Amino acid sequence: MTPEEKYELFEKYCSEELSAEEKTEFDKMLNEDATLQEELRLYQELHSHLDTTLNAEQELSNLKKNLKQIGDTYTENTTPVKKSKVIKLPVWSYAAAASVAILFGIYFLNPGNPSYTDFANIPELSIVERATAEEDIKGAENAFNAKDFATAETYLDRLLKKDANNTEFQYYYGIALLEQDKFDMATQVFGALLNGNSAYKYKAQWFEALNQLKQEKYEECMLLLKGIPEQSEDYDTAQKLLKKLE
Amino acid sequence: MGNTKPHADQKYIDALLQNDTAILTEIYQKFAPKVIGYIKKNSGNETQAKDIIQETLIVLYKQAKEKGLKLTCPFDAYFFLLCKRKWINELKKKSNNEVTINEGVVSIDDESARFAEETALFEAKHELFTEMFDQLGKACKELLKATFTIKSMEEVAQKLGQSYGYVRKKKSLCIGQLTQLVQEAPKFNQLKHLL
Predict the structure, then answer these.
(1) Residue A10 falls within a domain, yes or no?
(2) Residues A36 and A157 occupy one common structural domain
(3) Is A66's CB within 8 Å of B16's CB?
(4) Residues A125 and A213 in one domain
(5) CA distance A233 to A219
(6) Residue B134 pLDDT > 90, yes or no?
(7) Same domain assignment for residues A156 and A213
(8) CATH number of A123's domain
(9) Are residues A202 and A103 in the same domain?
(10) Residues A30 and A146 in one domain
(11) Predicted local distance difference test score (pLDDT) of residue A84
(12) pLDDT, tens only, B42-83
């Protein structure tokens, strides 16, 4: 048997294309030849290895991206703020500080319905990774952090045209829209995120809840708040808002 | 791993397959501190620890995807053991000197150790397969990618502008060549002893 014939036989065996007769004959050969048996086993293993790896490339790269994001957020949550370097507080610390202040405010001053401004803590956008980052990235970051949301929207829109699946861009794009009261567009952006599986899933859900709150659609808002899981960093604030609404 | 009922921590393995952010976040919250602490004590920093954690999770994903990994032991010790081993390998790669390790206090039961062993073996094999696949010629790589991702052979033949018969035959020859490459690799013989 030439190597060519051997591998064709292996392939047929793997894809179960041998006739009953061929199969009997092949089994007999295998029984008599341990080396052949061993080689077939490796061939089968490689066959299934290729089948899974080549088909899961996209899935794997999505998982890697998501793990990276989760890992990065995790560090931000645990690393104490460095004293010397650029003053970049982790996003949640603004939220935590602001929500304490706001809750105080609401508690004492405002017994009526909670409002969007009471609860919306706009996170800092930080996407410039290198000094030479492209113009749009710098522009988006500057405008967003200066609360010039119309300009930020333009930049983020342009970035998303180049990198439509970037969930970080999508998330901040949604916030920029919401800040300008472009409710429906914001709902579309957050909706896509919260139906996805990225690190921004529940952050988007929180902001979509705020979107409903801003439009005074309290029922919808509460429904969204109830879906925010305990592990999410917005859980506590969401629970507080929920209590106010109930 | 037989038909034993999977451990409740199988949810972490499933989360990797489903890319489930909430549960993956939980993995970091529950299991990362121990790994980071260990690596920091052994000449590493937090960033390096995070890389090790991510790489380990990716290996688990691959093992689950290819081999249907089913946990029958808790995730905790198993995962820590894998990260620890990966870090020690990393240190060894960097320096040819002896590596001194401050052992963390973790009790490892036999089951976790057995699982970790199996995963390490899977990873070594997976690496070897990938390495050998890269050594194949361009034509073989393309043909294999096409035949495994496009299910219909007729379509593949059309796409590559070849006859159906040729594609079929070439597929078996390419996997055959890969089989030979793996068999001839010195690493494979080392692994075989462990199988």
Answers:
(1) yes
(2) no
(3) no
(4) yes
(5) 22
(6) yes
(7) yes
(8) 1.25.40.10
(9) yes
(10) no
(11) 44
(12) 989 999 999 999 999 999 999 999 999 999 999 999 999 999
Contact B22/A201, CB-based, under 8 Å? Answer: yes
**Structural domain includes residue A69:** no
- What are the tens digits of pLDDT across the range B162-192? 888 899 899 999 999 999 999 999 888 877 7
Tell me whether residue A83 is in a domain: no
Note whether A45 and A130 are same-domain residues: no
Structure tokens at A117: 């401004």
Distance CA A35, CA B183 (A): 11
> Which CA distances in Å does A111 have to A101, A106, A107, A244?
15, 7, 7, 9
Residue A236: predicted pLDDT: 87
Chain B: residue nearest A11 by CA? B172
Mutate one of A41, A43, A48, A63 to test the B interface: name it (highest B CB count within 10 A): A63
B176 touches chain A (CB under 8 A): yes
In this prediction the ipTM stands at 0.86
- A22 lies in the same domain as A102: no
Q: Which of B18, B20, B148 minimises the CB distance to A51?
A: B148
**Minimal C-alpha gap between B119 and chain A (Å):** 15
Q: Name which of A7, A46, A47 is nearest B173 (Cβ-Cβ).
A: A7
**How far away is chain A from the Cα of B98, in angstroms, using its nearest Cα?**
31
Higher pLDDT, A53 or A103: A53
Is B28 within 8 Å of chain A by CB?
A: yes
- From chain A, pick out residues whose CB is under 8 angstroms from the CB of B62: 53, 60
Q: List all residues of chain B from 120 to 139 with a beta carbon under 8 Å from chain A.
A: 126, 129-130, 133
Cα distance from A159 to chain B (closest Cα, Å)? 24
Domain that residue A23 falls in: 3-55
Residues 6+ apart with CB under 8 A from A166: A159, A160
Q: Is residue A77 part of a domain?
A: no
**What is the least distance, in Å, from the CA of A75 to any CA of chain B?**
8
A10, A59, A75 ranked by CB distance to B50: nearest: A75
Alpha-carbon distance A16 to nearest alpha carbon in chain B (angstroms): 14
Q: How far is residue A156's CA from residue A127's CA, in Å, rounded to a whole number?
A: 11
Q: What is the mean pLDDT of chain A?
A: 83
Residue with tokens 């710098």: A138
The answer for residues whose C-beta is within 8 angstroms of residue A118's C-beta and 6 or more apart is: A102, A105, A106, A110
Do residues A174 and A223 share a domain?
A: yes
Q: How far apart are CA B103 and CA B122, in angstroms?
A: 25
Among candidate residues B124, B128, B47, B112, the one with its CA nearest the CA of residue B79? B112
pLDDT of residue A226: 87
